[in-house]
Amino acid sequence: MERVKLYFSMRYFPLTASVIIALFLALMIVTREWPFAVSVVFFFIFVLLAAVGVHDVLQTKRAVLRNYPISGHARYIMEDLRPKIRQYFFEGEKDGRPFPRDKRSLAYQRAKGQLDKRPFGTEYDVYEPKYEWISHSFAPSRIENSDFRVKIGGPDCLKPYQASVLNISAMSFGSLSANAIRSLNKGAKLGGFAHDTGEGGISPYHRENGGDIIWEIGSGYFGCRNDDGSFSPERFRENATSEQVKMIEIKISQGAKPGHGGVLPAAKITEEVSRIRGIPMGQDCISPSAHPAFSTPLELMAFIKQLRELSGGKPVGFKLCIGHAHEFLAIIKAMLETGITPDFIVVDGKEGGTGAAPSEFIDHIGFPLREGLTFVHYALVGANLRDRIKIGASGMIISAFDIARVMALGADWCNMARGFMFAVGCIQSQACHTDTCPVGVATQDPDRQRALVVPDKATRVKQFHGKTLEALAEVVSGAGLHHPSEFETFHFHKRVSHSQVTTFTNLYPPLDHGELLFGTEDHRYKIPWHLARADSFKAASL
């Protein structure tokens, strides 16, 4: 009796009602008292609902469905719709993560060549802590050309590269679709800037349109690996000497998942990706956390020298997210001991993007960009190495203000990933790891990626780059400068409380030239410098 009562409770009502209605419609079909076609259609609908309900009761993995057959599915539907409803109906201009709506709109407007100006005044509360601004000049400068460039290549580099101050950050084929890669690289070709391959290596889609390439080499050595996964000098030379490859970037770590190897979910590994990377299908592709080719700072310097020679003298550097301070200082000590220096270092911030990573790594591991960038910049200054090495910065950069800010903190140029994804159509659905990207950007599904029309998206990539640099030129001009490299920390101000304002110079105090070599009392560097050793990433004894 209790079981019978249960079936007529509100929890089970949808299942019970479906069974009763299906039986009633079966009777109507037999007696022909109702229109036959209509009865059959509704009969099959309610039989299907009844079958779903019975399955819900019998399955053992979802407690909600066992207790609420049929109606329990509403929970999962609403869970799926929740982020979409929030984004389209409830999200404010300054809300939304990782990028708020106004920043996404700015990228869309500039990519499409639409009006990117705003009326009426700022929506920021300029008296709230964390508000930041640039001090302007009473004598703005006149800038004729917004195509700002920086020469990358140290004293041992035979083929320096004149890079734009804004380039496409590392995003691999496999993580992104073929049409997304085509669009980005063609846009880079049209706009005269560089496209970082990401650790997935150089695909045919990177080569198709001839845009300048920064070849990123991760610990998986895709494009330059032997069958056992080790580094292959011969295969490296074959790709690195291509005229299209302008620089070589060793990926030590990535801001969104430092200390964790790259991840390409099995769902996105097609036969083509498997062939290009040389990896098996049907399982996640996880690069080693550490490079097999080197294990000490001294070995890293030797690897840099080897890659520079194999590439014919092209700029070679590395990308990292700062972690243990003494480990980066150990690399500096290895530079001083060997006399070998990278041509550039790219500092990736903790806030940087990724296609897939564990939650703990995305949220809580690694230095944010500003702290990491200033640490690297001032460490090189303190070791008298800054003039030999250029610094790139990446991590949640999307506007001209973002570019100016990181250049004031020590960067020579910026790399941007998600901004260019917005330019090719990304809507921040955050489905990158599922292979179900609704706009065809971060998927290997051929039906989905056909939504990207390459000529149109390439034009948007070019326009986004150009319009952003035009905005940067206006910011530089307003500050009375002539090049974004002239920004200094004293140009930037931050409200630290409702009644107190300070400059970035006070927030990120500099080191003097050679200060590390002669002994520093700066607490950020003093103990880590003593812990650092050129022959190991492990800390020395104090």
Main attributes?
542 residues; alpha/beta; eight-stranded parallel beta sheet; three-stranded antiparallel beta sheet; 41% helix
Task: Give the gist of this structure.
With 542 residues, this protein is α/β, with parallel strands linked by helices. 41% of the residues lie in helices and 11% in strands.
Architecture blueprint of SSEs:
Elements: H1 2-7, H2 13-31, H3 36-58, H4 63-67, H5 73-90, H6 101-112, E1 132-134, E2 149-152, E3 161-164, E4 166-168, H7 178-191, E5 194-196, H8 204-207, E6 212-217, H9 233-240, E7 245-251, E8 263-264, H10 271-277, E9 285-286, H11 297-310, E10 316-320, H12 325-338, E11 344-348, H13 359-364, H14 369-382, E12 390-394, H15 400-408, E13 413-416, H16 418-423, H17 446-449, H18 454-478, E14 492-495, E15 501-503, H19 504-507, H20 515-518, H21 526-531
Parallel strand pairs: 4-13, 5-6, 6-7, 7-10, 10-11, 11-12, 12-13
Antiparallel strand pairs: 1-14, 2-3, 8-9, 14-15
Helix pairs in contact: 2-3, 6-18, 7-18, 11-12, 12-14, 15-18
